[in-house]
Every structure is written in C-alpha cells, then in structure tokens.
Amino acid sequence: MDWDRDVALSRRTATLRRTKNGKPRTLHLPGPVLVALSQVPEQERKGKVFKWNSRHAIYKPLKRACRLAGVEYLPPHQQ
Question: What would the DSSP string read from start to end of 44-56?
Fold first, then answer.
C-alpha cells in the first residue's frame, strides 16, 4: 500500500491493489486506524505505508510484542 496512491485520509479510505481475487478493493478506515495513520508525520508519508518487504515479515515483531506484553500470540487467521 502506497501513501500517495492508496491512502486518502480526508476520505477515510485505503485501496488494496493486491487482493486474493486480483481486483483492487477500497476500504473504509475505522476511527482508530485513521487516528494512527494521521499521526504519521507528513514528511514520512511517502512510499510504502508498511515498510516490510514480505507479508510474512510482520509475524516476528508481532510475536515479540505479544511475548513482551505477556499475552498469548494468536496467528491472524486463528483469531
């Protein structure tokens, strides 16, 4: 997801261009997500919204955060 091309904070939307069915999809951004994205400084709103290179790269930091918080890690598709 790219800041300039896919995120429209003023419209509260984000577009996912790579989906399972191959068709782009525009999503409504819920309040907490909108707040979090709005807090990213303007000068950092360039290029990729998420800086990881692989969709699998999120699992290691998520597992670590769960361990540090003392909560059980549940993979996203098992919640």
Answer: G-SSBSS--SSGG
Q: Model confidence over 59-75: pLDDT tens digits?
A: 888 899 999 999 999 88
**What single DSSP character describes residue 76?**
G
What confidence tens digit (pLDDT) does each residue in 29-57 have? 999 999 999 999 999 999 999 887 777 78
Residue type, 15: T
Q: Which two tokens stand for residue 34?
A: 């909108």
Confirm whether pTM is higher than 0.70: no
DSSP letter at 67 equals: H
- Report how far apart, in Å, the C-alpha atoms of 8 and of each of 14, 25, 37, 48, 56 are: 6, 13, 10, 14, 25
Amino acid at 35: V
